[in-house]
Design brief:
The protein has ten helices and ten strands. It starts with a strand and ends with a helix. A hairpin with a 2-residue loop joins strand 1 and strand 2. Strands 6-7-8-3-9-10 form a six-stranded mixed β-sheet, sandwiched between helices. It is globular. The chain has a single domain, classed as Rossmann fold (3-Layer(aba) Sandwich). It is α/β, with parallel strands linked by helices.
């Protein structure tokens, strides 16, 4: 579904991504692992068009490099950024409505608003309050649901469990599994190795702006050298 080849990206003169290659198949969860600062978030931003990509980003046979972020979203890609980017002055319900694509109705697609409220009762209870008063975990749920309500075929989720309680972290993991059940391909940037290893079909490990390992979670568990060199603190 997604194929990235020789992807390079820059911030000014800093060469952040240095020839990244990865792919995600239909309905697959792929985890992108690595320490902070190795280029995982930049990879998502380059795929989404928020950072100018140098290289090839193919989605279902269509080249995305050079397209604007809103064009890429309309093609079928969703992106949940690390900083959440909610609209604090709007209500929870209004934030969700903003996730709908032009011409799309709330009941269209795999994820209706009522479906979101069924999964996350807290969002239902706070549907008509300003999003600024939501807890960090509730804001994370809102951001993920806002992206899903646009019915993407492929979604990138950046550090969804960062700063969350163990209980809310488990809720996020359950939602990720539900996303996979509904055949939405997922690229997951995650710091918590246990979650990624539990739910991912395949993993990529990044270091110094490059992919240094590709394999299954079981294969990564058997590579102490990779974990010590590129993942452990």
């Amino acid at each position: 579904m997604l194929e990235v080849k020789d992807l390079n990206a820059y911030y000014g003169k800093s060469h952040i991504l240095q020839g990244v290659n990865l792919n995600v198949k239909e309905g697959e969860i792929v985890a992108l692992l690595g320490r902070n600062g190795v280029g995982r978030s930049t990879t998502c931003k380059a795929i989404m068009g928020e950072v100018p990509p140098h290289g090839s980003v193919m989605f279902k046979g269509q080249e995305l490099a050079g397209k604007k972020a809103f064009e890429i979203a309309n093609i079928g890609l969703g992106y949940v950024p690390e900083n959440r980017d909610i609209f604090p002055g709007l209500t929870t319900r209004q934030n969700l409505i903003l996730g709908l694509k032009p011409g799309q109705k709330e009941e269209d697609g795999r994820w209706s608003m009522e479906n979101m409220f069924d999964m996350f009762e807290n969002l239902r209870n706070r549907a008509d309050v300003e999003a600024s008063v939501l807890s960090g975990g509730e804001q994370q749920m809102l951001t993920m649901c806002r992206t899903l309500i646009g019915d993407p075929e492929f979604i990138m989720i950046d550090e969804p469990t960062e700063g969350l309680s163990p209980q809310m972290t488990q809720r996020v993991a359950e939602l990720l599994k539900e996303i996979a059940k509904r055949k939405v391909a997922t690229l997951l940037v995650e710091q918590k190795l246990s979650i990624a290893m539990d739910i991912a079909d395949r993993v990529y490990v990044m270091g110094h702006g490059q992919v240094v390992f590709e394999g299954t979670p079981a294969e990564l568990k058997g590579r102490d050298d990779v974990r010590k060199e590129w993942l452990e603190v």
